[in-house]
From TrEMBL:
It comes from the Eukaryota. The chain crosses the membrane at residues 12-31. This is Probable leucine-rich repeat receptor-like protein kinase At2g33170. The keyword Transmembrane applies. Residues 42-81 form the Leucine-rich repeat-containing N-terminal plant-type domain. The keyword Phosphoprotein does not apply.
């Protein structure tokens, strides 16, 4: 591997360090402190000049007019520096319309903590030199044109908290190494072409708050998902999962939104769903093959506002133990074998309800 080669000045290494390096090559560990002799703001400027040369289209002239070599890079649009070390700490090129790629020189910006380039036309490959950015907390490349497999080496960014790769054309399976990133708070891989199973190692991300994997072709969800005690959002909408919902999901006591819409989930729901999911606001389960009775406590969930259960195979009667309906924004139950009604007592409650579609719940799918 040539990662170390690119910025290293070999003469500065003493023998033992070279030895460590040799051993480290296999696991892609990079010794940055020695690799840059005296990195300073000029190092950062060279890296950004290299980046500028990788911009092939800048339709609004944002960098062409602004990134002038005669002004400090700290004044360039999209760049922020930290006052303490006078080094570049953040890149934000969101919505600039740029067509570009990341040069290997990006790895020299060793004080970077944030990279966000959402909604541009950045293309691959992602240079492995990104691994030199040991302080990186946010890596956001959503809605660009990266493709290929997600690089496994991303699993070695030690401080990363938000990994946002959504809206690209990544395919193949999710590398297990990603689940090595135990500081992760948000993992957003939505709207790619990822396939295969969600690895069991997902259960190692115990800090995770948002897991967004919707809009892929994933086929399996492991029971280890139940270990994510801080998870607030679990979104698996529009995948190809056709197993029962793992029991552990109903143990995620911090969960606010659970979206499993448009898969082929089978099996039923636990009756005491609200007891273990006290924070739940949105339960989106439409277009699956879920069956059995609706949880009798469903309307008792303290915070729930959206319930989507349409187009499943639920049977029995709609639970009637409402508190009142002031909480409801949407209740969607059509396309099941349910009987009963939702008692709406007067306009007062309706004022709070944006949409209640319970029509057809008696006869849709009733087969003779
Ligand atoms: C570049 O943009 C920044 C922020 O908008 C501005 O402060 C700076 O003066 C601009 N520099 C040049 C050379 O246009
Ligand atoms: C990045 O830039 C966009 C567009 O200018 C802005 O809306 C957003 O708040 C910025 N994000 C950060 C983290 O500075
Ligand atoms: C960002 O990109 C997404 C996907 O291409 C698009 O749907 C969205 O409208 C874009 N947002 C903006 C503000 O341009
Ligand atoms: C997991 O992370 C550690 C520490 O950052 C690293 O040494 C190791 O190589 C990583 N493992 C994988 C499979 O990426
Ligand atoms: C990560 O997850 C795997 C599979 O669940 C497990 O065997 C392993 O012990 C976990 N590693 C850590 C560090 O928790
Ligand atoms: C989901 O179920 C539907 C109807 O039974 C079936 O046509 C479709 O092939 C299934 N999809 C998957 C991914 O299992
Ligand atoms: C769910 O939580 C209960 C109570 O803490 C525990 O007994 C059960 O084993 C958990 N189930 C799963 C699948 O994690
Ligand atoms: C309905 O429920 C809400 C929230 O629980 C409560 O604030 C409100 O007083 C209740 N209204 C009636 C008429 O019971």
């Amino acid at each position: 591997m040539e990662i170390k080669g690119r910025f290293a000045s070999p003469s500065s290494f003493s023998f033992p360090i070279s030895l460590i390096q040799i051993f480290a090559i296999g696991s892609l560990i990079i010794i940055t402190s020695k690799a840059y002799a005296n990195p300073n703001i000029n190092t950062d400027q060279s890296a950004l000049v290299a980046l500028k040369s990788h911009i092939t289209n800048d339709p609004f002239g944002i960098t062409t007019n602004n990134w002038s070599i005669t002004t400090s890079v700290c004044n360039w649009v999209g760049i922020e520096c930290g006052s303490k070390h006078n080094r570049v700490t953040s890149l934000n090129f969101s919505f600039m319309g740029l067509t570009a790629s990341f040069p290997p020189e990006l790895g020299a910006l060793s004080f970077l903590t944030y990279i966000t380039i959402k909604n541009n036309s950045f293309q691959g490959p992602l240079p492995v030199e990104i691994l030199n950015l040991r302080r990186l907390k946010l890596f956001g490349i959503g809605n660009n044109e990266f493709s290929g497999e997600i690089p496994a080496w991303l699993g070695q960014l030690p401080r990363i908290q938000r990994l946002l790769l959504y809206g690209n054309r990544f395919y193949g399976s999710i590398p297990v190494s990603i689940f090595n990133l135990t500081s992760l708070l948000t993992l957003n891989l939505q709207n790619n072409q990822l396939s295969g199973r969600i690895p069991r190692e997902v259960g190692n991300l115990t800090m995770l708050e948002d897991l967004l994997l919707d809009g892929n072709q994933l086929t399996e969800i492991p029971s280890e998902i139940g270990k994510l005690g801080r998870l607030k959002t679990l979104n698996l909408e529009s995948n190809l999962i056709s197993v029962p919902i793992p029991e552990g999901v109903f143990n995620l006591s911090s969960l606010i939104a659970l979206d499993l819409t448009r898969n082929n989930f089978t099996g039923g729901l636990p009756d005491d769903i609200c007891e273990n999911l006290p924070a739940l606001k949105g339960l989106y389960l439409s277009v699956n093959h879920l069956s059995g009775r609706l949880p009798s406590t469903l309307w008792q969930c303290e915070n729930i506002v959206d319930v989507g259960m349409a187009d499943n195979e639920f049977t029995g009667s709609i639970p009637t133990n409402f508190r009142n309906l002031t909480w409801a924004k949407q209740i969607v139950l059509w396309g099941n074998y349910l009987s009963g009604t939702i008692p709406i007592k007067g306009r007062k409650y309706m004022d709070y309800i944006q949409e209640i579609s319970i029509y057809n719940h008696k006869i849709k799918k009733l087969q003779i």
